[in-house]
Amino acid sequence: MISVPLLISYLGDEMFGVWATVRGFNGYLQTMGLGIGYALVFLIAHSVGTDQRHKINELVSSAFFPMTGLVLLLGTLLTTAVFVFSVTDLFGLSTPEHSTMIRRVLLLLLWSMVIGTVVGIFLSVRSGLQKEYKNNIWNIGGAFLAFSGLVVGIKLGVRIEILALSVFFVPIMVMTANVISMLKSRPEIIPQFSAIRLSSFRRLASQGVALTGAQVFAAVLWSTDNLVIASSLGAAAVVPYAVTFTTVYTAFGAIHSITTSYGAAIRESFASNDWHWLESTHRKILAIVLNLSGGAGVWLFFWGKDAISLWVGSDIASSVTPTLMTLLAIYLPLLVWNSAWAFPLTALSKFRWQLLIVVFEAVTTLGLSLWLVRHWGITGVAVGTLLPAAVVSSWAFPWLLSRVTSGHLQPNLKWVTKQALLPLVIVIAVGTALSLALSEQSALTRAIIGGSLTLAISLFLTAIVGFNFNRSKLKLILHGHYNSPVEIDEN
């Protein structure tokens, strides 16, 4: 969030548009790991849930050695592809002289992902053992150092390749230090050739490849919009969309982290048939993330443009239309709703039907975006992104999770409305009143007073929802019923 205004002023609209589009390739490059890292997380959690911790070294060894060779091969092949394709046409560059620089940035991103995929195998162990917070602490340090390097590079006036080196490789160096620290404290997980088992690799690969298919088409959903805009309207046209979507993505990432933090615990509980914990936790997470995302969507609708004006300047903010802001404000809670139902499926390694849903949604999104961008510009891309999510995954993922868990985790629209509608109405009313009261004020005043109050009230209402769940859980514990198959008191 902080780097965006710095890079726009330093690189200019066209080069920042290219930078944002290149960063979008992250989604595609993450698939080179073939989902082995995710599969490893959940298989380790499954081993813990079934009291088979002795299999952890076997799983790590069976993942590390084959994957190292595979990603090096893929990295070499993709490097060749970078030199074959025309960077100028792909990114809508008006000056072909920049193509060499952008090609180097692509290569730096590619090889940072190659190294990160190998290092990430070890980080999956901590996630599987429900020690993700330790990885997060190291990641915070890596992000701070990368940002510091970016600021120093801008102050020194370095080329874009040096900026990419800081942004892409400094976090990898910190991740590597994290792995070294972990291996010193847990030498039993150091990979060994003798521990490689074909059956373990086959199990990892079968789950990972299915997940990779979903990741590839998820990358189409997440990472192609900037490319569609750049190739159709030029690199500079990416800027207002990329800036607005960054606010949505940042809010989504923060809220979605609540769901993903429970991934290993979901798999472990599933392995031990602890349905009571799964049901109660899923409902609590769903209520919290829906209230947070609804509040964030309202905040974007009323104060997003003011925040963007303060963030990157009024010129860019003026090119963000109210229609675009409204569409993306609606998309945020829809995206969170879908992820809250889809991620447990990933944790349970149920990929086949999930893959079909993502494929259909991705193909529909890409087709609509390519068609609508010609008629409605960047607003058409937003419509092409929102409609398939609303029509397809908003009901398909809940249905699929209910089917996979034999009805234990299923949507209840009456319950969802009860948990989320009243807080949402209150936040909308507050946002409307503040918007009218502050209509004559400056963007700074509107963003600080209106935005802060709207956000504070949304967080307060979410806290009340969470407190009610904890109160119900406490009542069950006090009555000695928490481990028995009783329903949570929804009142």
Mean pLDDT: 83
Span between termini: 39 Å
Q: How does the major sheet shape up?
A: none
- Report the C-alpha radius of gyration, rounded: 23 Å
**Structure class:** mainly alpha
- Indicate the overall shape: globular
Q: So how many helices?
A: 20
Low-pLDDT segments: 484-491
Helical percentage? over 70%
Count of all domains: 2
Q: H/E order of the elements?
A: HHHHHHHHHHHHHHHHHHHH
The total beta strand count reads 0
Proportion of residues in extended strands: under 5%
Describe the protein's architecture and organization.
- This protein is mainly α.
- It has two domains: about 1-210, no CATH class; about 225-490, no CATH class.
- The chain is about 80% helix and about 0% strand.
- It has 20 helices and no strands.
- It has helices spanning about 5-10, 15-25, 25-30, 35-50, 55-85, 85-90, 100-130, 130-155, 160-185, 200-225, 225-235, 240-260, 265-270, 275-310, 315-320, 320-345, 350-375, 380-405, 415-435, 445-480.
- Helix 5 (about 55-85) packs antiparallel against helix 7, helix 12 runs parallel beside helix 16 and helix 14 runs antiparallel to helix 20 (about 445-480).
- The radius of gyration is 23 Å and the shape is globular.
- The two termini are about 40 Å apart.
- Mean pLDDT is about 85; it is low at about 485-490.
